[in-house]
Design goal:
alpha+beta, seven-stranded mixed beta sheet, 20 helices
């Protein structure tokens, strides 16, 4: 029997009694692993060897995991500090316990996120309690992390518990992977064993054929190709999976939203992601002691205050807050300071862009009618769940014109959402400090049948428009791009398409609807 050199080498190195991996055969033959793999599949097609594939998983502790393995998980340190402070008897100050636990920066949020989940106690209104029956020494995640640091692999493969492994240990390792403390590596390991036909072929003798695997210019020039024996080309052999780049479905939909709004006569706005409280909240007639303006709802930046705010506009906004607008205006009976107005936050809504444009600060004074929009990212300190993220895309829009009404606003929404196949909008009256009347928009989820809130809207109040110098009506809205996707495709969790837990196969295979 005559075979190509590589196949002869693999056949002679293979065993009839032991499965040898591609890596081991590569070492014994001196051939590259990919060459051994190709030869093995060719030999399998000829019935001389059998090739088996096993999926294996290994785990490696990340740098952050190494740090916590040495210092302790943040939630465990928080629990021990809470116990020391007497939180097992009565609630104690959270700030005091955080300081005693030596937690800093992101560790505080990590500790708080996992503290109640693990049953260590409760955190409420700036106070913390500790369950005296909790056992941090038996923390499954800490135990699994310590095992990996010591070079022991808690799990052998797959995402399900292995033989002899508890469900608790399996879940603990999954949690460590989600938290970024452990990296999971999955790979296919192929093994080769001789068949009876392969053993017979070796006993009868196998001769290496001088074959070539490609036609070269030199062979054509010399005429050598006439006498050459070419290796068979196996079109069914495994090849590395190559995945080309693709625009994220969220970005594709954002571009389609932009095209739709431009087609409806709108122009696009842009502006800073980090902006002064003045543009984000004060211009919107939101009192400075409003709950949504605390660090629990927005992200404050430790940077110098913003100086380039027009002084005359600053005075008019201050007057609206303290004294009101018009003969019947009373303003708010709460403090207002320029220092707060100049503080810089990550914008919680793109309405800060609307304030910049309507005031004439961005592109000069505007004359009605005008239409503007933006599809930009915003940031909020929300609790993560299927419909909320810390950062998401907002579809901002407004129309400036004479004699606008809520019917004009509703008609705009019906025209916009119809372009995306959504025709069952519902409207619910709502309160906003900056619009009156106001209402929320809802759409029906195509899979669950539940009503999903998809936006907020209304007519800007006089207290917003007068300080900006606008003397006509302005209707405005903020819509959620991610929730538009939920209605279009039936997703029930926006984390499937956005963030570190997104479903990559879903993103690769889902095409944007047109």
């Amino acid at each position: 029997m005559r075979l190509p050199d590589s196949q002869v080498a693999v056949l002679e190195a293979a065993s009839a009694t032991e499965e040898l991996t591609i890596e081991r055969l590569s070492e014994e033959t001196g051939l590259k692993p990919e060459t051994v793999t190709g030869a093995a599949f060719d030999l399998e097609d000829a019935g001389l060897v059998a090739v088996s594939t096993a999926e294996t998983v290994s785990h490696e502790v990340s740098d952050e995991g190494e740090t916590y393995a040495e210092a302790g998980l943040p939630e465990v340190r928080l629990y021990r500090a809470a116990l020391s402070a007497g939180a097992d008897d009565a609630a104690v100050s959270l700030g005091e316990v955080i300081g005693a636990a030596d937690l800093d920066g992101p560790e505080v949020d990590i500790a708080l996120a996992n503290y109640a989940r693990k049953g260590y106690g409760d955190v409420d209104s700036g106070e913390i309690t500790a369950d005296p029956d909790a056992d941090p020494d038996a923390d499954p995640e800490a135990t699994a992390l310590a095992s990996l640091v010591d070079g022991e692999e808690p799990r052998s493969s797959g995402s399900r518990p292995q033989a002899g492994e508890s469900v608790e240990a399996s879940d603990a390792l999954d949690q460590l992977v989600r938290r970024g403390l452990v990296d999971r590596r999955e790979r296919a390991v192929r093994s080769v064993v001789l068949t009876d036909e392969g053993v017979t072929a070796l006993m009868e003798g196998v001769e290496a054929a001088e074959t070539v695997d490609r036609l070269t210019p030199e062979m054509l020039a010399s005429g050598e190709w006439r006498d050459a024996e070419f290796a068979d080309y196996n079109v069914e052999a495994d090849a590395p999976a190559e995945r080309g780049g693709k625009v994220h479905i969220l970005r594709q939909t954002a571009e389609r939203v932009k095209d739709t709004l431009v087609g409806m006569g709108f122009r696009e706005m842009d502006g800073p992601h980090a902006d002064a409280e003045f543009w984000i909240n004060d211009c919107l007639f939101m009192p400075q002691d409003h709950p949504a303006r605390t660090h629990w709802d927005q992200f404050a930046l430790d940077v110098p205050p913003m100086r380039d705010i027009p002084e005359d506009l600053l005075d008019r906004v201050r007057s609206a807050h303290l004294e009101g607008v018009g003969d019947d205006g009373q303003g708010y009976h709460s403090p207002w300071t320029e220092e707060v107005a100049r503080e810089v936050d990550l914008r919680g809504h793109t309405t800060s862009l609307s304030m910049r444009y309507l005031s004439g600060n961005e592109i000069g004074d505007l004359e009605p009618p005008e239409r503007f929009f933006s599809v930009e990212k915003v940031y909020r300190n929300d609790t993560l769940d299927p419909t909320h993220l810390l950062e998401f895309f907002q579809i901002e829009g407004w129309v400036m014109a004479e004699d606008l009404s809520v019917r004009d606003l509703m008609g705009t929404f019906e025209e916009f959402y119809q372009q995306f196949g959504i025709t069952d909008l519902q409207f619910k009256p709502h309160y906003n400090p900056y619009t009156e009347p106001s209402f929320e928009l809802f759409g029906t989820h195509p899979e669950t049948g539940e009503l999903i809130e998809i936006g907020n809207s209304g007519m800007f109040r006089e207290e917003v428009l007068r300080p900006l110098g606008v003397e006509c009506d302005v209707m405005a809205w903020g819509l959620a791009l991610e929730r538009l996707l939920m209605l279009m495709y039936g997703f029930d969790d926006i984390r499937d398409v956005h963030g570190t837990l997104c479903d990559l196969d879903l993103l690769r295979n889902t095409e944007v609807l047109h």
